[in-house]
Amino acid sequence: MSKLNLFGLDRAAMREQFAAWDEKPFRADQVMQWIYGRGVDDFAAMTNLAKNLRAKLVELAEVRIPELIAEQCSEDGTRKWVLRLAGGNAVETVYIPEKDRGTLCISSQVGCALDCSFCSTGKQGLNRNMTTAEIISQVWFANRSIGVASQEAKGSTNKAKRAITNVVFMGMGEPLANFNEVLPAIRILLDDYGYGMSKRRVTVSTSGLVPFMDRLHEAVDVALAVSLHAPTDALRDELVPINRKYPIADLMDACDRYIHGKPNRAHVLYEYVMLDGVNDSPAEARALARLLGQRQAKVNLIPFNPFPGTDYKRSPAQRIVAFRDILNKHGVIATVRRTRGDDIDAACGQLVGRVQNRQRQRLGDIAVRTESARPASLRPGV
Ligand code: SAH
Ligand code: SF4
């Protein structure tokens, strides 16, 4: 009989499983705390569980975590991990330490079907959705590698100072195109028995899958980032093809719904990649200010990160600053994202992993692929 994998179950699923074993809900909570909070994958080491429960878990279940195949460290402290996934695929995760926080940038799909013209992940097409276990394992490995999980195991609580203070779904893939697997991962991040993160410190970044923005809003409360990249439909159609299905007016309505009823401080973060001579003129900055001026918005300007085969160039620094200043002058808070991890290809849009058997979806199919990940045949050697 194959053992049941408990890794990747959120609280509801874990409790349901424990109920099926005639075990009390708080036992499920304890096991969650061991696995996620303390990074322990061995039931025998879960010392606050009764001996007979530990023995039962060893017999019936396992904590099966995908394999880590590489870790790289940049000169600036940025780290990148490569995870091996079924089907000969690999995905990448990046940790960006800063003075007052540590941000983990995680992947949600092997590749991406949405084909944004300036994105190297998009250029690879989609292989498959990642499972919740695969998504959350990125946090598990990063925590373990940074060494915090082991300190916690020595007795401090979930509130202990953490190296990972923020998690952003800005790695490979479009998280809202994999909603059913991403949602339990978000729940584990927020759960006190999971990673206990505050909802403002978990950010889902989307290229604008409008129906799933509403579903996210209904299901869970996390920060939202939207990859806008252009102030007009004509230009956005070209850069972010999903715009042809969900144009800017619909996207803005969805953004407004997302923060409706939330405290005044709440805002949507709009990402805007700075492409030389494409979307970076003063007129475009003013159009963007008009679009966002009356909204609870912040703008993050991302200097384009080149990759092999692209014709785009990064806007010169001066033009980026001028663009930012126009936004600020019109009352729209705008910042420029610092490029990190250049030397290990860990900057935004440079994550490629290894995507096998890729496919590109027709626009009509996009946003409805919510079935669980389907592992292809196992291939050795990534
Ligand atoms: N699919 C999601 C999240 C992953 S991409 C989304 O599109 O929002 C995270 C951010 O990096 C997005 O804003 C994306 O547009 C941006 N990005 C993609 N390729 C880039 C590149 N080559 N240089 C700079 N930013 C890029
Ligand atoms: Fe996919 Fe985001 Fe890249 Fe667009 S920018 S192709 S949505 S990962």
Describe this structure in words.
The protein is an alpha/beta fold and 382 residues long. It is built from twelve helices and 14 strands. α1 (11-20) crosses α2 (25-37), α5 (132-146) packs parallel to α7 (179-190) and α11 (282-292) packs parallel to α12 (317-329). The longest helix has 15 residues, at 132-146. The radius of gyration is 21 Å and the shape is globular. Residues 116, 118-120, 170, 174, 205-207, 227, 271, 273, 302, 304-305, 348-349 line the site of S-adenosyl-L-homocysteine (SAH).
Low-confidence stretches: 149-161, 361-382
Strand content: 15-25%
> Quick one: biggest sheet?
10 strands, mixed
Shape annotation: globular
Considering the chains and any ligands shown, give keywords for the structure.
382 residues, single chain, binds S-adenosyl-L-homocysteine, binds iron/sulfur cluster, alpha/beta
Describe, in short, the structure shown.
The protein has 382 residues and is of the alpha/beta class. It is built from 12 helices and 14 strands.
Write the SSE topology:
Layout: E1 4-5, H1 11-20, H2 25-37, H3 51-60, E2 61-62, E3 67-73, E4 79-85, E5 89-97, E6 102-105, E7 109-111, H4 120-123, E8 126-129, H5 132-146, H6 148-153, E9 166-169, H7 179-190, E10 202-206, H8 210-219, E11 223-227, H9 233-239, H10 248-259, E12 268-274, H11 282-292, E13 297-303, H12 317-329, E14 333-336
This protein binds S-adenosyl-L-homocysteine and iron/sulfur cluster (SF4).
S-adenosyl-L-homocysteine is lined by residues 116, 118-120, 170, 174, 205-207, 227, 271, 273, 302, 304-305, 348-349.
